[in-house]
Amino acid sequence: MKKIYLHALPVRVWHWVNALSFFVLIGTGAQIRYRDVLNWMSFQSAVDIHNFFGFLLIGNFAVWAAYYLLSHKLKVYIPDPNLKNFILGTLRQARYYGYGIFVGEPNPHHATPDSKFNPMQQVAYFNIMLLLIPLQIATGILMWDIKRFAAIIAFAGGIKFVDSVHVFLTLFFTAFLFVHVYLATLGHTWSEHIKAMFTGYEEEPESAH
Amino acid sequence: MFTHFGGRTVGKGIYWNLTSGERVDVDGTAVLPGTSDERYLKLPNAGICIAGPFAGLLFTFVIPFLCLFVMLMLLPRTVLATGASLSEEAQTCLSCHATPGMTMTFKDKTTVDLHVDAGNFKGSVHTFDCTACHSDVSLDTHPATQYASRQQFLLHLASACRTCHAEEQLMANPQHGRAITRANAPPCSGCHGSHSITKVPTKQEKFSTTQYCLACHTQQLSKSIKGETVSLTVNEDWIKNSVHRDHGCVDCHTTYSKASHPHPAYGSIRELSLAASETCKRCHFDKAVQHTGSIHAKLLSEGDQRAPVCADCHGSHEVGPKALAETIGGQPCQKCHQEIFGAYKGSVHGMAKEGGKGHAPLCSSCHYAHDVKPAMASRSPREVCMGCHPDVTTAHQKWLPNTEAHFDAVACTACHVPGDYKRSIYLRITDGSSGMLLSDTVVRKLLEAGQAVGKNIEPNELWKLYRNLNEERTVTMAGTVGLKDHRHAHFLAPKDRAIRQCEWCHSGNSSFFQSVAVAVARPDGRETMIDVDPAALSSLYAMVPLNQFYVLGSTRVRAMDYLGAAMILGGMAVPIAHGTLRMLTARLRRARQRH
Description:
heterodimer; A: 7 helices; globular; B: alpha+beta; four-stranded antiparallel sheet; four-stranded mixed sheet; 14 strands; elongated
């Protein structure tokens, strides 16, 4: 077995704070939106907690951004600029998830500190971290003080639209979480990737190389 | 040496107390009675002996004159002063009737003053014998009361006037003729007086214009206008107690004078009242201008004559001070708005006012006094409330997120009136450039074209309406939360009974969202409502028209619920399907590994 130092401490801290924030934000968001169905807490508590974890998530995003920008490791998120390589890599990875994994083929991608994500992950996380999370943060901030940001909200299409975008992204993230957690169990053992997110080290059988 | 004071020891002599007039004779020595404030004059014996006779003479000489003076003062001066020119009979009557305070009580308990001022009587045009008019009285007979009332007595006496004054004479002046032929014309004495009768020209010069008017108008006068009877009687006390006490009649009744008494024709009493109030503008021009912008003036211009003018609130001859109108009892609005005023009295403001808090608001504090503004159900009275409660924003910011946004969309009354009263959602359609509510005729015309009149506006019709309106102009549809019946705003409760739980609004099953209406303006500027299907608020059709109105939880786009369910189920399906396939293919992998 070989140990690879895959996740630096800032990344691990960011990941779990992010996980907690997602969990609480989705829960309180559901409480705010579905008061007539859910009764976990009062509307006011739900809003207060949602606002707190919203800002926690924003701060956490800043930690993520600072780490990746300052350490020049953001490249792990950027898909291969060579379109042919990128497409072939994606197809290879898709073939693995759709076929190879069932018949026992090895994962075509091997995670290393400089190449953490396979092409499909790169596309997904690149979009999530650089487009969807910022968009979720922006719509959240706009709704946090709709009077102060009234002009921007109006420009963006109105509060109803801004809220709908925020909710749509939440739905996407919620759906994605099921896939994300499931994929996290597809390591060498089911808990391999999850342990690595705590310890930073991922164990890989020697035969994999 | 002649002056001494009470309490002092004095020698022999006669002391005269100048304060009480008491004489104190002292033999030897004695203490003068009384305090040191009381002065005594010591009369020397020699002085008394010399001065006594002279004083006595003087006294006896002056006494007759004193008596004469008292007689002149006490005897009815008029008898003596005028008696010479009065007939013997008149002097005999006046020997009793010149005494002030004599009255006669009739069967109906009304009274008449029997005092006759001899001076005035002598100065009147009638200096003949009393019995010439009082024909039922003679020097031999003096009948007891035989009249039912004062009015009957005065009318009986008025008939005596006719014995000398012929019909032609009485009717010669059209004004006079009109006055005396009225069904309820006052007796002659009502205008001309009884024992001080003078010729009218003399009266005109002698009386002020106001006195001249009141000579008749303090009588029981009334006028009939198309079957309605209006009283023309003016109680002098009304004017004396009014703020216009220093004004004369003609200051307001400008077309009248001693020489002119027009009789304009009115279609109704109300028409007369409306015309009479026009005169107020002459002095209160600023208030009149304010009134022209009021809801009352608008109603009048629409032909609703019930709407009040000056006199309806302030009274006509008994105009009270402003402070009176600022009391619970003197508030004029309650005359027409009893029900609302009753609600106000039970409100936090009304109770404060009745509890003696002078600064507590009354009707005019919110609706203004002359520029009376109607309540708008679709708009928060925020500016008015904040006029007295300027720090409410800070107070709400302590617990209410997005305070300003709430203040923009939620009427103060929507939370500060107890939850028992229904709320409604109003969609205010305003013109983008002027910010004014759009005309209902424009909106109704478009709805008619879409055959959406007479029923709730459906979600798609709301979208069509918005789209059609925006073809010619830019309109905004802003949502607000208010009371369904704006009159319920007068049930304002103390703040501890205000709605504070967010769930009242922010819940998909909130009762506040079961009534929805579009708010537009009638030609007079007042708002009018057109009902909307409540489903429109959470419809995709509302995404653009109501893009600025969103209430978390309540107006959520329902379509998103289904989309969300599909997305989450899809997300869950991936691990389930993939995991199942992995389980099913586990044998395959194991076999492959073995090879």
